[in-house]
Design brief:
Number of domains: 2
Strand content: 5-15%
Number of strands: 2
Structural class: alpha+beta
Helix content: 40-55%
Strand order of the largest sheet: 1-2
Radius of gyration: 23 Å
Order of helices and strands: HEEHHHH
């Protein structure tokens, strides 16, 4: 397959090449032995991370707790609490009283 590089260093890849590797928005570019190697990269967006956190029932407070735990474990690994306690905390936070539900809607 032949592809042309424009004066602005832009390259259009043949449709058959892009279909063979699947839909991707980004390519990793490497140069080895005078060859340019393009590798598809799939970058997870912030929305995907937020959706996964919501699926697990984790909120901002859980993330803050995890960060706090990670920072303390780097200093004193034996003093840190187990990670599984965060999922129990998330489940406890999910249960809201009627007053808390009303407050969260405003």
């Amino acid at each position: 397959m032949l592809a042309k590089i424009t004066a602005k260093n832009q390259l259009t890849l043949p449709k058959s090449a892009t279909q063979a590797v699947g839909a991707t928005e980004y390519l990793d570019v490497q140069v080895r032995d005078g060859q340019i190697i393009l590798t598809p990269v799939r970058i997870q967006r912030g929305d995907a991370v937020r959706a996964k956190l919501a699926e697990l029932g984790l909120g901002e407070a859980d993330v803050a707790d995890a960060v706090r735990w990670a920072r303390t474990s780097a200093v004193a690994p034996m003093a840190a609490e187990p990670v599984k306690s965060y999922s129990a905390t998330a489940k406890a936070r999910k249960k809201k009283t009627p007053a808390r539900k009303a407050a969260s809607r405003t």
